[in-house]
């Protein structure tokens, strides 16, 4: 971890309004679709209508002769040109001890299609409409093969096989803990609580659908890729090194504004690759813009974890052992993190904020004939926290304990920190019982009974949900590089490899630099999304502030130190006699001085620059307590969250207002997961929820006022800022909190378990069944 001078300031605690908003909200954003066409050709992708089929033949002759058509490409064309496949992490083993094996992810399917929506051919034409019309004229002869869409069914004997080299459809497996000791504890337990739980498949719903432009730079011959990417450097590396097989420095990735990412925009997609391929073949600017159906059928989905979980408890509610068996679905192909999400990231937090050392976790990843599953806000941690929090509520109900009391009986105590959990992860800081106590007071816990009675008079069921969550952040990359420049024009410019996509990074980085250097914020520029200027790890896993921000803090200090060295030479004194303050370097005790920007004027290129690296000691562990209240109309099954209170430990909050906004957004997505959202395929692998007519996301009037309180009493110890990642926290605490609230309301009529999404139809039917029973 970087050790910085104690007198440096980092702008912590200031609720600065977002600097980005004036530009973004007045139509001055720099999104890909804002770029002028300038004679660009349009590309359209033809997708498979079948979930599993052999491609017998593709006839492109008619399409190739249609008006405006410049080129038509198939998978066979790309194979002939030695175009590579999109890689994934192949670091796991199968249950039989053999290395994992997955089908190659091609830009266009070759010989076999493995899910409905897989790209089969691409047409390039003068207009988007012409490309679309020509794609419809491509004649593809398919031999339809059996498909499997349910990951649980996929591992049963006789199930259709997605990839012949994995005849049981299992990609990889991991286990944690001691099965024998856990079995002994269950045999002796006073209470055993078991639940079958599903974190259903979700479709990320960013405001801006994916889109791509590729062109060849006339002066240099380099390939320029304009793309929405949270990780520009790795996008460049995969495109250049793995797909196009050309030198990395021959490709420049440029990312402008991104209208939402949520992890979905982390990987290079086949559409990005085929646009780049077409640009290199035709030496023309090529553009592709996805519509919402492209996102539903061709983008990565999230979650999709099916689990059976159980607690063994003593008669006082202490958990003696914890057992989980899970199947994580990868879809037909493994996206970059498809296997690491359920096999590693989920188990990292599966014990939550509780002292549960005796565990046995078994997790398998399984292929199905469905769209690939990838990162989505939280990536494994929402699924894992959902399991442990649902079990605690079920256990409290079965034993007859207060849901607060059973959690307090199992919390990690402050004296146990730093604490190593069952997956070997070290929690550096936290005050878990304290967070619960604060949330209980702020949520008016004692007033719940009166609100429940009032709801009952209206004929409504009323319940309360409680969740204590913890989150692992860092993206397994604990360093980040930035460069900082002071220019002769009186500006300070930051180049960073992290990527803004709605978090407000321009604001937080600017206020940190402004506070440390004493330079007004309107004279600071934050530049991201250009692999020629910065090639850091990017923005995943809520790492941008606590890792990227550490690099910003280091660079500010480095720039001051370099400026002091330069000033000592100019002012002919020792560096120890140079004092820096608010952009001016002064010889202590004299009026001899020189400004930071005057020093820059004397430098090569008229700028004073430093390249810096920030390093943290490990992940950060944001955590907190969420409490909600839910009312249900038994006549319609409609659930409504009416109160929502959170207390969140994000360590030191650089900008509390932005953190609060991040938690609001995460909770909204958590409400969507609990009550509304769910991907559905039919038995043949057709996506039944391919638009917002069939896939429900929460609207503004579905979200209650969310009261967020930030608690900084346990600052992070793994980075010099004391900050903890916050971008995904709401999406981790939200789903179990709302689900626990609904199940609490339904418990009074004997309903013990339902799987999300808790839709009106599902609840209405459960109420009818309970009354009939």
Strand content: 15-25%
The N- and C-terminal alpha carbons lie at a distance of 60 Å
**Number of DSSP helices?**
20
Main sheet: strand order: 3-5-1-12-9-10-11
Low-confidence parts: none
Compact description:
This protein has 773 residues and is of the alpha+beta class.
Plain-language structure description:
- Helices cover 29% and strands 24% of the residues.
- It is an alpha+beta fold and 773 residues long.
- The strands form 7 sheets. A 7-stranded mixed beta sheet has the order 3-5-1-12-9-10-11, with helices on both faces. The chain has a 5-stranded mixed beta sheet with strand order 7-15-14-13-8, with helices on both faces. Strands 18-26-27-28 form a 4-stranded mixed beta sheet, sandwiched between helices.
- A hairpin with a 4-residue loop joins strand 19 (479-487) and strand 20 (492-496).
- The longest helix has 27 residues, at 544-570.
- The mean pLDDT is 96.
List the helices and strands and how they pair.
Elements: H1 21-25, E1 41-47, E2 53-59, H2 61-64, E3 69-74, H3 75-80, E4 112-113, E5 119-125, H4 128-136, E6 139-144, H5 151-154, E7 170-177, H6 179-188, E8 191-199, E9 211-216, E10 223-227, H7 232-244, E11 251-254, H8 270-282, E12 286-289, H9 292-298, E13 305-313, E14 319-331, H10 340-348, E15 359-367, H11 381-399, H12 403-408, E16 419-420, E17 426-427, H13 432-442, H14 448-457, E18 461-470, E19 479-487, E20 492-496, H15 505-517, E21 524-528, H16 544-570, E22 578-581, E23 584-587, E24 593-595, H17 596-601, E25 607-615, E26 623-633, E27 638-649, H18 656-675, E28 706-710, H19 729-747, H20 760-772
Parallel strand pairs: 1-12, 10-11, 14-15, 20-21, 27-28
Antiparallel strand pairs: 1-5, 2-4, 2-6, 3-5, 7-15, 8-13, 9-10, 9-12, 13-14, 16-17, 18-26, 19-20, 19-25, 22-23, 23-24, 26-27
Helix pairs in contact: 10-11, 11-19, 15-16, 18-19
